[in-house]
Design goal:
six-stranded parallel β-sheet, elongated, single chain, 391 residues, 13 strands, alpha/beta
Length: 391
């Protein structure tokens, strides 16, 4: 029986207008997701510099790879929101939109007159998504907000790295912009839910994701454990707080990751690496025992992995049914056969993880202000008014 074909979702939101007022990653990613799903996304940017990420390294052919990653499937409108005319234009666009997404600093959209109350006063069906780092409350609004700051604040950095890093190496940032990207996904999910609710009950809808909320959600089981036990999560390198052996080991040529947390897999692993007696050792009898005696167990196992290469271990372990894989760098991961099979890269872009239907290409990120005239004309500005607004 053949596998079912994924439902095509690329045009699901065709006919919806989204206005994005913001920069960096979380807000632009949420808007890009909606654009990939078919919505007409209008990105409002400052005329001189545009979204801050347009200037971020690395640059390829004059374009920031960061900007490219989160701004396809959009049109760009350059408006000076410091001017009365620019603010009026932004408000008109927002009042004609189905969705407005903003991730400016708390209080800025209120000063600009494009906050939820102002938009909803002229658009009683808007879904307004306001993204912040620490929320709009009195304490949260006063805090600066970037992905790494929230990783530090929420305990992610303090629990990332190797044992002993706190004494010398220091805290470790997760290399991916994990909190920003995850918040963008949560924002898109909240917007889709709000659109569904709007279709049922009507009226304007307000969605309020925050990076801090996302960070704690990403730490879900560690949060629960710490709350119930009062213990601080350990730095464990590649290891798990719940399973062992479940980490990377140094092979003859590189690192191999082994996931053998259950009793059955542990016994198979011990037999394969030449120490079957460990499976019967009372110190390692159950998963919790192997966590208690992790250091002793790892010392027994680590020396044995140096006897073969990563490729040899992956083949042997795989044949025995023990999960294992190379610890790839990114170019090797992207070039792997499984990545190719998944069709993740489309025309130089990463497709949405849930959109695996056939797609030949994406609309590339827009040039700054490339669509200003067209979009303003669509909401009733005359050519003369547009000229006056832009000069």
């Amino acid at each position: 029986m053949s596998a079912p074909r994924p439902t095509p979702i690329a045009g699901t939101l065709t006919g919806l207008r989204v206005v994005e007022i913001g920069a960096n990653i979380a807000g632009p990613l949420a808007a890009m997701i909606l654009g990939d799903l078919g919505a007409d996304v209008v990105k409002i940017e400052p005329p001189a510099t545009g979204d801050d990420t347009r200037l971020l390294a690395p640059m390829v052919d004059g374009e920031s790879t960061v900007f490219r990653s989160f701004n396809r499937s959009k049109r760009s409108v350059a408006l000076d929101l410091r001017s009365d005319a620019g603010r009026a234009a932004a408000l008109r666009l927002a009042r004609r939109a189905d969705v407005v997404i903003q991730n400016l600093r708390p209080g800025v959209v209120e000063r600009l007159g494009v906050d939820f109350d102002a938009v909803a006063a002229g658009n009683d069906r808007v879904v307004y998504c306001s993204i912040s780092a620490f929320g709009p409350g009195e304490l949260g609004a006063a805090l600066p907000g970037y992905d790494a700051l929230v990783q530090a604040y929420a305990g992610i950095m303090a629990s990332t790295g190797h044992p002993g890093d706190g004494d010398g190496g220091g805290p470790v940032r997760v290399s991916a912009s994990l909190v920003d990207i995850s918040t963008g996904v949560w924002a898109a999910l909240g917007i889709l839910a709000a659109l569904l609710r709007r279709s049922v009950v009507g009226g304007p809808q307000y969605v309020e994701p925050a990076l801090l909320d996302t960070a704690f959600t990403l730490m879900g089981h560690q949060v629960t454990s710490s709350f119930l036990t009062g213990e601080v999560p350990e730095r464990l390198g590649s290891a798990s707080p719940s399973f062992s052996p479940y980490q990377a080991y140094r092979a003859a040529d590189d690192w191999v990751f082994v996931a053998a947390g259950s009793n059955r897999l542990f016994a198979k692993l011990c037999a394969l690496v030449g120490c079957p007696e460990l499976a019967g050792d009372e110190r390692f009898a159950a998963p919790a025992d192997r966590i208690t005696h992790r250091e002793v167990l790892n010392k027994e196992l680590a020396d044995r992995f140096g006897a073969a290469t990563v490729g040899e271990w992956v083949a042997r372990l795989g044949a025995a049914g023990v999960p294992a894989c190379p610890v790839n760098d990114l170019p090797h991961a992207l070039a792997s056969p499984v990545t190719a099979e998944r069709g993740l890269l489309v025309d130089g872009f990463l497709r949405l993880p849930v959109d695996s239907g056939a797609r030949a290409a994406f609309d590339p990120p827009p040039a700054l202000g490339a669509d200003t005239r067209d979009v303003l004309a669509e909401v009733g500005y005359t050519a003369e008014e547009i000229d006056a607004l832009l000069h």
